[in-house]
Write a structure and sequence with these properties.
By secondary structure, this protein is an alpha/beta fold. The protein has three domains: about 55 residues, OB fold (Dihydrolipoamide Acetyltransferase, E2P); about 140 residues, Rossmann fold (3-Layer(aba) Sandwich), CATH 3.40.50.300; about 60 residues, Ribonucleotide Reductase Protein R1, domain 1 (Orthogonal Bundle), CATH 1.10.40.50. It contains seven helices and 13 strands. A six-stranded mixed sheet has the order 10-9-8-11-13-12. Strands 1-2-3-5-4 form a five-stranded mixed beta barrel. It has a two-stranded antiparallel ribbon with strand order 6-7. It is globular. The structure holds guanosine-5'-diphosphate (GDP), magnesium ion and zinc ion. Magnesium ion (MG) binds next to helix 4. The site of magnesium ion (MG) has 5 residues, from helix 4.
Amino acid sequence: MKGQIVKIISNLYYVNCNGEIYICHSRGNFRNKKITPVVGDYCNINEKDNYILEILPRKNFLIRPLVANIDQGLIVTSLKTPDFSTNLLDKLILIMELNKIKPIICITKEDLITRTEKDEIRKIMDYYEKIGYKVLYNYEVDEIKTIFKEKTTVFTGQTGAGKSSLFNKLDSNLNFDVGEVSEALGRGRHTTRYVELVSLFGGKLVDTPGFSSIDLSVYTKEQMKDAFIEFKNYECKYKDCMHNNESENECAIKKAVIDNKILKSRYQNYIKFLNNDNNN
Ligand SMILES: Nc1nc2c(ncn2[C@@H]2O[C@H](COP(=O)(O)OP(=O)(O)O)[C@@H](O)[C@H]2O)c(=O)[nH]1
Ligand SMILES: [Mg+2]
Ligand SMILES: [Zn+2]
């Protein structure tokens, strides 16, 4: 029977098969012997004697938290305290694209900015929507609830962005600590942290935030270029154009920035990531 590992404690694997949890052992002799099962892994189990038979191929794999098969990532983005940063937003989108995780932007603290600032943010968010990303505001509770269905979701965002508050508002059973540095799910500070997939609105949520230490140096420049998804709508003179040293006559991306078709901050952040020069 097929299922997904939602929790691992010691050598016990909690496998969710059609909503039912089977506590399984692993014989450690999978077809691919190098594989160590992690939370998020899809597997086939023998439900009669509760053994994992086989770990199915992974779509992706994160180290921190240690999880596999993430479909989408909720980027909780504050507009004030902490201040909005296109650099951080673009970096998180980039990392998700590089890991085949669909980014979803969730804006918080719109109530703390002025009317003029709101107009500015709306324009920026219109751009992200236009290039294909879903943008939600944390007060759009009903709409946010719909995104989890049949997906495994990870979340991220700066300390104080409003991640814990958001999940508590979505589902009071979640009970995240608000205003605390750790994202512990009300388990107490001294219990050992382990990652768990919790059921949420027909899907699964990774209960520990991801991408706390982002290292771009492991990716190639070509990978980064491809991860700026709107760039592929433009054709530059040279197929291998990196959109940095060429003139705007040769580079369709540079031209599009000048023509306000590509958001200037997106392009500037791309150049910073490309040059590994990210001191904002
Ligand atoms: N004004 C305002 N405050 C918020 C909003 N969302 C969260 N907060 C507050 O921001 C602080 C940090 O929130 P928390 O959920 O702990 O952030 P986390 O570190 O991302 O988990 C808390 O004092 C929350 O009450 C919001 O939309 N508007
Ligand atoms: Mg928190
Ligand atoms: Zn170019």
